[in-house]
Amino acid sequence: MNAQEFRDGLARLGLSQAEAARLLGVKLRTVQRWAAGRPLVGEPAAQALRAWRRLAEQGIAWRPDSEPVEVEDPGAVAEHRRAALGLAVLLHPISGQRGGWRRRWRINIERHRATSPAMVVHFNRLADGSFLPASYRRLGGPGEAPGDRLLLEEATAAFLEAAARVEAVSSAAARAAEPARHLPQLQEAPV
Prior knowledge:
With about 190 residues, the chain is of the alpha+beta class. Helices cover about 50% and strands about 10% of the residues. A hairpin with a 3-residue loop joins strand 3 (about 115) and strand 4 (about 120-125). Helix 2 packs across helix 3 (about 30-35). Mean pLDDT is about 75; it is low at about 85-95.
C-alpha cells in the first residue's frame, strides 16, 4: 500500500492520523511517515485498513473501540437500514420532542461521525455514497440501551440532515459551474 492509498483509506474511513495510530497500535509518528510515503505502509496495517474499508462499504461496524449499532445478519441489517433510515422517518419521532436536539450534535461529514456530550456515533459511507450508522461509544460510562436508542436516532437524523445539506450545496455548485446549455446560442450578425 503506497502513501496515496493509505491517505485515501483513512479519508474513506473518516479516520484522523491519531485515530489510525491508536486503532492500529502504532505510534502517531509511524502513521505520519506512512502518509508521507517513507516507508511504505506495513503489510499488517495495510491489510487491516483494507478489511475495515470493505466492512464499512458493506455497512458493517468495523471500529474495534465501539459498540455496533445493531447485532444481526450484516446483509439484512444493511438492507433494512437503507429502507428504514430515511430522513423523514427519523425526524418524525424526534421533531415532536422539546429541546434543541440539533444543537446537541456536532457533525463531521469528512470523519463520518456525530458527537454529543454523551456519545460518539460513527457512520459508514457505502459504495453508493449513502451513510449508515455503524457503531457508537458512550463518553460517560457504560451504555443504557433505552437511552442509547434515542441518542442514536438523534445522531442519525442530525448526521443525515447535515449530509443532505452538503450534498445539496455540492450539487448546486456543480450546476453553477457547468456552462448554461439551456440558453440559446447567440449568433453574430454583420453590422
